[in-house]
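Practice problem: predict the structure.
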Amino acid sequence: MKLNQTAVAATLMCACAGAFAQAAATSSVTLYGTIDQYLNYMSSSSGAKIKSVSDGAFLRSRIGLKGTEDIGGGMAIKFQLEGALSADTGASGTSGSLFDRQAWVGVATPQAGEFRIGRQNTAIFFRGDYIDYSSRTLGSIVNNFGTPSRYSNDLAWISPRWSGLQLEAHYAPGESTAGMGAQAVYQLAADYVNGPFRVGYADITGKPNKGAAITVKKAITYRNLYANYDYGQGKIYATFIRSNNSTASADGNNAATILGNVGALVAGTNADANRFYNIVQLSADYRVTPKLRVGALYGKIVDTSNSGRGAKGGSIGAYYDVSKRTTLLAMYETMSNDNNAGFRPSGSAGVSPNFSGNDVNGRRIQGIQAGIVHRF
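Answer:
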């Protein structure tokens, strides 16, 4: 009898082990994150200076969960939950929001691509690595203009790559009191790769609230063309942007956006929607050794309304891979605002503390940074 019980127990253990192995082979959940800390010294031509320990030069500090479940036929259920944090203080990225960066679930198919629903990164934010040597973070003039990063309630489709071409579309209905779709955010993108060449386009359009007391009948748009060439030891990058997504705040004449970069909708009351900017930027990097990469860029923000709200500047940077997970970085950047312009430096996270008011508008701002990024 004891022998039979032992045999049954062994059989059950084998069955459970087999089921566990099968489940482990068809589904997975990954805990991941980054810690990004840097020393920051910045000066304004007003005479003001900033010395700080800051978060988010290259990869905003974050923690997240992502997973996939194979449901057969080449299909899979996928999800991602990601929240930002300020590693210099331990505070969450957004008060009252646990997963402020991403919170979505979707299905991936072999023929039709991925379909997702929830809070997601924008198509152009995802393409930061294609824009310049800094991955459109600290030191990037494009980044200082303000790039729409993510929106809530977002429905997305990402195609497979067909002969080098991948397409992407997003629709976030707005869900405001103005009515479903009244303040919707639309996105379209295309990315094409052929050997060492990559070219692409991504745009974002935020519809204004038609029921606003003061209506500016102009959508807020962000149109981005980009191209890069991998020459073996590094890449050469070029990008062009046309957008009217810039406005004033107490921090500077161009320190805010009309279509919020992390989820706010277009109220339709801001006359700055009539002012468009053209942003042009060239960049290149070079891998000195397998572990050391250096890069530089120059960019210009042109105010097409000729009201003196443009800027220009550039940067040089170096990245040294201590290991597969840890990178040291050093950066010098400079930006000169036109007389009426008030753009401010930004990294993967906003520089904090940063200059404001008289230390920004019409000023030249320079910065030197050194930091460490660890991925887990």
